[in-house]
Specification:
Length: 365
């Protein structure tokens, strides 16, 4: 259940969340980041970039621009590794566009990526300085986190919570028949992460500190329809509702009066078109938003403990995640796999939060 507090006046409040985010922005990463910027109870401690949907310099540029746009320019934008641990980097311009955010554009915020800070060192120092306080959201390949665990094996005990968007279990992959994109980009890193948590579990790590894994089995239930943008524009009190039609020419740009609605519409239109090209309909699977809501404590979900491993040897099954829910391997659980969620409530939450942020940004523009 979503975490809530009750104020003295009876109003519901969220407990504060201190968040470290690692992403590969990415259209759904951008949506997730905008959402988290709209959550007053979330303090983003740092945003680190991993290559995946685009190369890491473009990821960092996207992150830097979006943080400034959403009123969070103080958040450090850090770069970690520039390639997977053992295999060449593969990006997806056909999925997310050449710059990673579809047709959307933002001005250069005129402040640099924090090149003097290494993303992995930052994580480790922050975790050591704030034991049990930090939540980590990983919506990218797990390369940076795998290297952080190499340098500081105590991270599983130091972090409050870790949320991973990745994997596919009893579900078709979106990159190969069995493999999900984030895991397939760097399966060796994912294997290391789950192995580290398996070792920690054997040493008695509390089950509440195991990774919460948001796999395709449940993230693809967050299937966004174009009318989401209409609802968002109404919530944002735009002069005219945003209408995205399946019959629109590809590449049609938004004319919304609200800059956030315009940005998200231009990004998501590309994503709608991509899914249609692959015969999935004029929809968008917004995987990373769901994982962001789990990390922020705002969305409903249920988990089931499992022992998770990743295949890195088989050519046919390369990058496939395997979950042992029944203890057949005889090993302790090293993950909490999400098995149920509530997309309808999740989209209502997204409209409300982003609508409020859109109104705020419009007032300040």
């Amino acid at each position: 259940m979503p975490e809530k507090l009750v104020a003295a006046d009876g109003a519901e409040q969220r407990p504060p969340i201190r968040l470290l985010i690692d992403n590969d922005t990415g259209i759904d990463d951008a949506l997730a980041l905008a959402y988290l910027c709209a959550c007053d109870h979330v303090k983003i401690e740092a945003l680190t970039s991993t290559p995946g949907n685009v190369d890491v310099e473009q990821v960092a540029a996207n992150n830097r621009a979006l943080l400034a746009f959403c009123g969070r320019p103080e958040v450090p934008a850090l770069i970690g590794v520039r390639e997977p641990l053992q295999i060449p980097l593969v990006t997806t311009p056909e999925t997310h566009g050449p710059q990673g955010v579809g047709y959307a554009t933002l001005p250069d915020p005129m402040y640099p990526v924090s090149m003097d800070l290494d993303a992995i060192d930052y994580w480790i120092e922050a975790a050591r300085a704030n034991p049990g306080e930090l939540t980590v959201l990983l919506s990218a390949p797990l390369t940076n986190f795998a290297l952080a665990l190499r340098r500081e094996p105590r991270l599983p005990w130091l972090l409050r919570k870790i949320v991973i968007m990745g994997g596919a279990f009893y579900y078709q992959g979106n990159t190969t028949p069995t493999a999900e994109w984030n895991t397939h980009v760097d399966p060796h890193a994912a294997k290391e992460v789950f192995a580290a948590y398996a070792a920690a579990a054997e040493q008695g790590l509390d089950s509440e500190r195991l990774p919460i894994v948001c796999s395709l089995d449940t993230t693809e239930r967050f299937e966004m329809q174009p009318d989401f943008l209409t609802k968002l524009s109404i919530e944002a009190e735009c002069a005219e509702p945003e209408i995205v039609e399946t019959s629109d020419p590809e590449g049609t740009l938004s004319t919304s009066s609200n800059p956030l609605v315009r940005y998200l519409s231009d990004a998501l239109r590309f994503y709608f078109e991509f899914h249609r090209h692959y015969d999935q309909g004029y929809i968008a699977h917004v995987h990373d938003y769901f994982a962001a809501g789990v990390a922020a404590g705002t969305l409903d979900y249920e988990t089931r403990p499992a022992t998770v491993d990743v295949e890195t040897e088989s050519e046919m099954l390369f990058g496939t995640t395997v979950a042992d829910f029944r203890g057949l391997w005889g090993k302790p659980a090293n993950a909490q796999v999400v098995v149920a969620n509530n997309p309808e409530a999740g989209f209502a939450e997204l409209v409300q939060r982003l609508g409020a942020l859109a109104r705020k940004l419009n007032e300040n523009s």
